[in-house]
Structure formats: C-alpha cells, structure tokens
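Worked example 2:
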Amino acid sequence: MKVNDHQVKEFYSNFLKRDAPTNFLRGVTLDTSDTALEALLDIPHIPPARDAYTQIMKDVTTGKLSLDMVLEKIGLPEAGWEYNKGDNVVPLSIACMDLNPEERIWQQIIADYILPSTHATHIRVHVVVLLWAILEGKRISVLSLIRESMWKVNQQQKYNISFPSLITRFASLSGVERRPTD
C-alpha cells in the first residue's frame, strides 16, 4: 500500500491526546485504541503491570541496573559510553559501530519500527536499554513506546513523520477517502 503523506500529516494535526482511543481524519473516526493498534500490528497485549521496560528504566535510574553491564552484553569489547559535559556527568549514548553485528541489526529494527530516529551514528541510553531488554527476552509493551513516538511527532511538529505506513493502513481500513490531491 502506497503511503498517503497528506493523510498522515492530517492524522498528526488531529492527534491531540497521547492515549486517545480515537482520531478523526476527513470526517471518519479512526479507532486508535490499544486493542486496534495491537490487532493492526499483530502484537500481543502486555498489560502495563507486566511491561518490563518501565521497571528496567527505573532500575537504571536508581542504579540497580548497571549501564556498563548492559553495554558489556550488547557491545563490542572496546565499546564505551559517551557522556554529557558538565557537573553531573551521565551516559548519553554509544556509537552504533560499538554494537555487536547482530545487535546492530536489532537496533535498526527498533529505529525503523518502534522508536524512530534520524540519528544513524549514535544510540541514546533508553534505546540501548530497550535493545538489551528485548535481546534478554523481557516482556516489553512496544505499544506504549510507539504511542510515545507518535506523541512526540505531534508535539515537536517534526518534518520527518513517523509511522506513515501504519497511519495509511488505519485510514484505508477505516474507509477514509483518498483525494485527487493525495
């Protein structure tokens, strides 16, 4: 199915609430509920209480989970964190080339389908932790991450709009008419 850029832009201009169960597009109500997204993406439902990523990020923040251990598992032996500058030094990212080859493939999948990124050279901490969690077999609700990415598009008014195929499929399945200008 060919992406309809006009519909995608209209979708985001009407995307007013992060967890909205519906969105309006050209007079049609799109079901954007978690159930509809899970069905469209063919992903299992993982209740928030069973989503490991939230707890893992808390563990990173409190120091219960070592970022060095995470990097050791997914990075090349010479891999290292890049830190911010200033008084409160914290890890920010790693270079993509510091990942093991298999992990680099998984990182690209995450960047293409879950947490879209235009950065091809560095991976931020939260993406590194997500990559590690997925490869460790943790139960992750990617739906909340996708919703967050969609919300950021709306808030930042980005020009590189995420999930165009997903939104075009939503519109098509909901019966949104294509216009001659599309």
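Helices lie at 5-13, 34-41, 52-62, 67-74, 101-113, 125-135, 142-156, 164-173. The chain has a mean pLDDT of 92.
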